[in-house]
Amino acid sequence: MADHSPKSPSGLFVPSPEIAHKSRVPDYEGLYARAVADPLSFWEERARLLSFVRPHHTLLGWNPETFEGRWLVGAQGNISFNALDRHVAEGHGTKVALIWSGDGGEEKALTYAELLEKTIRFAQALRSQGVGKGDRVAIFLPPTPDQVVAMLACARLGAIHAVVFSGFSQAALRSRLEDFEPKVLVTADIAFRRGKRVPLLDTARKAREGAGSVTSLIIVGREGAFGGELLSGEHRLEDLLDRVRHEAPLPPEPMGADDPLFVLYTSGTTGKPKGIVHMHLGYMLGTFATTREIFDIRDSDVYFCVADPGWITGHSYVVYGPLLNRATVLLAEGTPEYPDAGRHWSLIERHRVSIYYSTPTTIRLLMRQGDEWPAKFDLGSLRILGSVGEPLNPEAWFWFHRVTGGHLPILDTWWQTETGMIMITPFVSTPEKPGSAGRPFPGVVAEVVDPATGREVKPGESGTVVIRTPWPSMFRTVFRDPERYRKYWTEIPGAFFSGDSARRDEDGFFFFLGRVDDVIKVAGHRLGTAEIESALITHPHIAEAAAIGKPHDLKGEIIKVFVVLHPHAEKNPPGHDEIKKHVRTELGGIAEPHEIDIVVSLPKTRSGKIMRRVLKAREMGLPEGDLSTLED
């Protein structure tokens, strides 16, 4: 058993030598030094653990002019093959690949052989609708096995998928469809959340009205075959599967260094969400290696990540990374407090979960429910804990540590949609500091710099986090917006600009402080202030709007909005509930403002840019900083 008692005034929690020795990374310092000295050899060793139709002739082709990182140049392979076929061929077809727990408590398990069979059939169904290599497919499904299968089926065909979180409204889904222009949209008739039926198909149909590229809408029956009326261009998945039932198995499409795997939309600082493009082979290498070595994956592990596959964590560390490592993955639909606050603890006990990768929001929510809930369950199967999405505050860290036995490592990880893989993290074998994301993954060169000069700041000083060298799962571009991609690399010349601020202590540990741009993280979801503001001003009575994030004990941040009304509405202003409902309709429930102020004007620069930092400073009682550009 590891000893995670404080060992020094700096607050280090040190693993036992026995655990460190048995882990996949027993000597972090030595491995990191070797990886920085020769990063290509480091990644080459990990690429050899994967299967390819044709090997690469160049591991990395880096273009400093276009900032393109081409990984595994010359190789041909497929992530679906490596996640499924390879394991079945090696005799592991009977191993459980996926355990699914539904919102209502229903459960299903699929072996690797069964998951492969479902993936092949789903790929054939997509092909019957004209989908092939390079075609685009949007997936609007709840977190069920069908969502995982749809992703793997697209990868098998060489099609590019865009998974859209099933909690989004029709307006938010439509904006992504209009940009992505998929040939096929896959959705479900209904979803469930806290026991309530959510009419997902209605949302998809309304969104499709503004997306002329969608020639086929495939409907997955959430509780059996969809029995409703089909509209033009709609197909029941069950009908398509029946038609291809006797077709020969579909082999995976060979994919190369320049073939995209998916586009994932994430909020930015403009009103339009940005489509982050990840490439097939490089993403495969990065997620495979980080899952294997950070989570110390073993054949006996049951791995539970709480993320929805509609977000990047679900892509990398629910679907692709764990399956590439032949893990048994637990996928849970619903929320951690439904039907009661014992939901996650019960799942851990029942399925003997050994790795639990959670979020600060979930941990704080469970902490608020009290110690009695985890105390009701046998958590003895756990050996590794993790957290992702935002910094895990020390109070929650200590609670999580204590109620799970007081000896388990907590891997508080930092990475982004753009990075595709974990970049900064503790390891099972390394010391931990509550509130810190640890140190960089081997092969990753991360620094905290002064944004004005690009030079590294002194230990203890805050600055902007940058990445100095390419990494395998780096994104290639922003979909249809290459100039937006260039800004990541030109903000601070010679480095990837993360947009996050942090300080690094004298031991090299990173402590993240938040975003340097106007992005709000609510319960682990990134929402652009501009996207929220764009939704607000579509209300007929609202002329202008500004949104900020405020710290919150449970959600990390909440949304507060300031709205300026049209003159005609000032005598009869809209109520707060009406404004909240409007945002829910436009963007979805996760974007609903928690607080609303109706104001006469907003602080702006002379060029008309809203100074959100001034609003936030006033709200928090902090210094407002330089006001020389303030118009009034």
UniProtKB/TrEMBL annotation:
Domain AMP-binding enzyme C-terminal intervals: 531-609
SUPFAM superfamilies assigned: Acetyl-CoA synthetase-like
Record GO terms (molecular function): acetate-CoA ligase activity; AMP binding; ATP binding
Gene Ontology CC annotation, any one: cytosol
All copies of domain AMP-dependent synthetase/ligase, residue ranges: 87-471
A single GO BP: acetyl-CoA biosynthetic process from acetate
Keywords from the UniProt entry: Acetylation, ATP-binding, Ligase, Nucleotide-binding
UniProt enzyme class: ligase
Enzyme Commission number(s): 6.2.1.1
Acetyl-coenzyme A synthetase N-terminal domain ranges (all copies): 28-83
Family: Belongs to the ATP-dependent AMP-binding enzyme family.
PANTHER family in the cross-refs: ACETYL-COENZYME A SYNTHETASE, ACETYL-COENZYME A SYNTHETASE 1
Protein name: Acetate--CoA ligase
Organism: Leptospirillum ferrodiazotrophum
Lineage: Bacteria, Pseudomonadati, Nitrospirota, Nitrospiria, Nitrospirales
